[in-house]
């Protein structure tokens, strides 16, 4: 009875479905394996496939071979440092392709987006698209029946020795291009990127556990993040009978078509029992609605382009939250930052209200969020919530044109003047439940917080979202607004940077930026430190020396820093011969690197400190590849007067030590001892001349 009733239900369910014909003859990898065919699989791509981050390939091979013993042969042809095309033959993906095709693959996995997005390779999204299509064409020329599977991979963060995120500011655009090519050409896409973004938003510690260097997932990341998505997508593709990268009504229609036939043995008969029955329906139903190649990674809650030329409605590109114009704002069809439209507000009654939309509050009032806009003017920009402690969300310009976020009896203020009559891209990002986790960005770069108070974010679902005015007591926006967006997640620095800038910055900026601060596992530290619990030397690595008052790196408060105190130095030679003292710190790396430079910031002093000093003099620096006690194993870089944090010293001081690419594994920093005045920068009240380190960064040369 169950079989008959289910069959009747399915027939009725698909009567209205149009176009049951036109089904593709192509089969997915698992469908071929299900039918008993042997499969040769080749993977091509970057180090995320064939190098440090490629553990998932072997894990996938183990899974497939356990499910289909003797049917799967896999060749990993990924090459670390490669891109889809490169003038360097050792990095040229297209150049490697003939060798990969020599294995006569039935299935080819392709991922080059990560390194195509690498700015020094100077490859545009369009060039990357062209290269990808050329790779696809060559694969199909070799084997017209080959299955091609495209992949987006993980997100990136900056680590102590590499600027992975900053050097790939438009990575999301390259990943989006892979989605588009997959959809245009009808190929399967395994879209890992949203999973990594979600992990970053939910648990940054777990992200660093899985991607310890900021770019290469380790074996645990492969097993827990990448492999499950590979399995999910391949299993779902087995139910995508018409090969349109979705399991939808058309697939159900095909399934029913086979259900009505006895002795069916096609792709719809998952357990190959010659009948498409309830077992197969349950398998199919488990994948219903799958459409990973069309996933919306942006999590864009609302987007008002403000490109209209007339009317009283500002449309929302997501289709969910159109806005109603009040007062008399004037459309400017060619007045926007990009040459398209914008909306002119007169500062005296013009605003937009989004009726029924209460902003990003979702499951809890402190949900992570991002608001961005292009502005040429000043005043209230975007708001919702209510004017009570912690319950408001008003993004605006304030005194002297600085960005300001009001959360209800608490304001956070930026530094840059954005009300200067020029176009600026602005963003406010919240990634926690307190104002401590709010960041501003102007034209793609982080804007220093100049005014701050810590308060819980508890935005109320009371008032509609408004653009250009916050309500009673607010300040009407006066000027041009363009391209206003709300996201229900925090945007990463590379995403914001990609909008506000057209070039890569020369300096790295603050490492890890909005993602939080923790020490990098690739560098460790030891040294003289005693009697300062909570201010251990490890706090100086990779941005962990955080000023808890302002939320900024390189704060002036020595209480937030690592402290170097008087403990005997075990090193021999000049750093322990009486000329130099015993306040020292040693940084060691996980391997030998050709070190380009080191940056180090010391304590910021003020008038209450000894001598009103502003820097640390005669810091003695040595380096080694072995780290032994023999003085011959160490090279002396020499003495240096260090910059304070932040640098306001009139004395000759800076924070850069140029190593010039020499091999280094250990670096020792010692502060010179001696009579009063030979070095300065000690902690107030210290009888042993202890000194504070705000932060140390290292950069490798290649």
In a nutshell, what does this entry contain?
The chain is of the alpha+beta class.
Q: Say what oligomer this is.
A: single chain
Total individual domains: 3
Look at the structure and name the CATH superfamily of the largest domain: SGNH hydrolase
Range of strand content: 25-35%
CATH topology of the largest domain: Rossmann fold
The secondary-structure class comes to: alpha+beta
CATH architecture of the largest domain: 3-Layer(aba) Sandwich
Sheet with the most strands, sense and barrel status = 8 strands, antiparallel
**What does the average pLDDT come to?**
76
Distance between the termini: 70 Å
Q: State the helical fraction.
A: 10-25%
Quickly count the helices.
14
- According to DSSP, the number of beta strands is 28
Q: What would CATH call the class of the largest domain?
A: Alpha Beta
List the helices and strands and how they pair.
Layout lengths: L1 H13 L14 H6 L4 E7 L1 H4 L4 H13 L4 E5 L16 H9 L5 E5 L1 H4 L8 H18 L4 E6 L18 H15 L2 E4 L1 H10 L1 H7 L8 H19 L11 H11 L18 H8 L14 E5 L8 E2 L8 E4 L3 E3 L9 E5 L4 E4 L14 E10 L1 E6 L6 E6 L5 E4 L4 E3 L10 E7 L7 E5 L2 E3 L17 E3 L10 E10 L5 H8 L22 E5 L34 E3 L18 E20 L13 E9 L10 E8 L13 E16 L19 E10 L2
Parallel strand pairs: 1-2, 1-3, 3-4, 4-5
Antiparallel strand pairs: 6-21, 7-8, 8-11, 9-10, 10-21, 11-20, 12-17, 12-21, 13-14, 13-20, 14-15, 15-16, 17-18, 18-19, 22-24, 23-28, 24-27, 24-28, 25-26, 25-27
Helix pairs in contact: 1-12, 4-11, 7-8, 9-10
């Amino acid at each position: 009875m169950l079989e008959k009733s289910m069959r009747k239900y399915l027939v009725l369910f698909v009567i209205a479905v149009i176009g049951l014909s036109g089904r593709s003859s192509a089969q997915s990898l698992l469908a071929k394996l299900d039918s008993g065919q042997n499969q040769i699989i080749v993977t091509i791509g970057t180090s995320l496939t064939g190098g440090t981050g490629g553990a998932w390939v072997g894990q996938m091979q183990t899974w497939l071979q356990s499910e289909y013993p003797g049917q799967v042969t896999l060749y990993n042809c990924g090459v670390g440092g490669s891109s889809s095309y490169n003038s360097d033959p050792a990095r040229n993906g297209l150049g490697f392709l003939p060798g990969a095709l020599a294995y006569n693959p039935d299935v080819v996995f392709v991922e080059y987006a990560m390194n195509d997005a690498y700015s020094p390779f100077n490859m545009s999204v369009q060039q990357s698209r062209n290269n990808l299509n050329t790779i696809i064409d060559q694969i199909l020329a070799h084997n017209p029946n080959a299955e091609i599977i495209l992949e987006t991979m993980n997100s990136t963060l900056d680590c102590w020795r590499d600027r992975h995120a900053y050097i790939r500011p438009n990575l999301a655009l390259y990943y989006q291009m892979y989605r588009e090519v997959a959809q245009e050409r009808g190929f399967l896409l395994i879209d890992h990127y949203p999973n990594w973004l979600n992990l970053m938003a939910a648990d940054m510690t777990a992200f660093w556990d899985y991607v310890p260097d900021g770019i290469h997932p380790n074996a645990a990341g492969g097993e827990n993040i990448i492999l499950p998505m590979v399995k999910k997508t391949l299993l779902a593709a087995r139910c995508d009978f018409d090969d349109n990268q979705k399991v939808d009504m058309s697939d159900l229609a095909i399934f029913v078509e086979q259900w009505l036939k006895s002795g069916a043995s096609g792709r719809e008969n998952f357990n190959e029992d010659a009948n498409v029955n309830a077992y197969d329906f349950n398998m199919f139903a488990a994948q219903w609605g799958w459409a990973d190649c069309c996933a919306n990674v942006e999590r864009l809650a609302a987007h008002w382009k403000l490109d209209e030329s007339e009317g009283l409605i500002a449309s929302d590109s997501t289709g969910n939250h159109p806005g109603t114009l009040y007062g008399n704002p004037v459309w400017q069809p060619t007045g926007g930052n990009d040459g398209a439209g914008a909306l002119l507000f007169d500062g005296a009654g013009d605003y937009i209200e989004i009726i029924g939309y209460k902003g990003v509050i979702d499951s809890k009032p402190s949900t992570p969020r991002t608001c961005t806009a292009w502005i040429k003017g000043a005043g209230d920009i975007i708001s919702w919530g209510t004017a009570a402690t912690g319950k408001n969300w008003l993004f605006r310009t304030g005194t002297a044109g600085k960005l300001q976020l009001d959360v209800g009896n608490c304001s956070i203020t930026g530094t840059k003047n954005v009300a200067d009559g020029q176009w600026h891209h602005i963003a406010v990002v919240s990634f926690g439940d307190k104002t401590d986790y709010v960041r501003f960005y102007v034209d793609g770069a982080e804007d220093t917080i100049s005014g701050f108070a810590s308060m819980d974010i508890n935005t109320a679902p009371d008032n509609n979202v408004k653009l250009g005015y916050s309500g009673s007591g607010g300040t009407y926006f006066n000027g041009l607004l363009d391209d206003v967006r709300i996201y229900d997640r925090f945007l990463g620095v590379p995403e914001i940077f990609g909008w506000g800038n057209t070039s890569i910055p020369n300096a790295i900026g603050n490492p890890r930026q909005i993602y939080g601060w923790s020490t990098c596992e690739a560098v460790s530290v030891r040294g003289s430190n005693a009697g300062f619990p909570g201010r251990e030397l490890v706090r100086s690595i990779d941005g962990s020396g955080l000023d808890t008052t302002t939320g900024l790196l390189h704060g002036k408060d020595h209480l937030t820093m690592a402290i170097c105190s008087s403990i005997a130095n075990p090193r021999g030679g000049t750093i322990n011969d009486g000329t130099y003292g015993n306040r020292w710190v040693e940084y060691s790396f996980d391997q030998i690197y050709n070190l380009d430079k080191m940056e180090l910031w010391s304590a910021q002093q003020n008038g209450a400190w000894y001598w009103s000093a502003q820097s640390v003099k005669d810091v003695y620096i040595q380096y080694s590849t072995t780290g032994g006690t023999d003085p011959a194993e160490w090279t002396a870089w020499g003495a240096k007067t260090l910059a304070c944090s932040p640098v306001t010293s009139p004395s000759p001081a800076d924070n850069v030590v140029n190593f010039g690419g020499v091999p280094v594994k250990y670096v020792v920093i010692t502060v010179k001892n001696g009579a009063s005045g030979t070095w300065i920068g000690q902690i107030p009240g210290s009888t042993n001349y202890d000194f504070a380190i705000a932060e140390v960064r290292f950069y490798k040369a290649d």
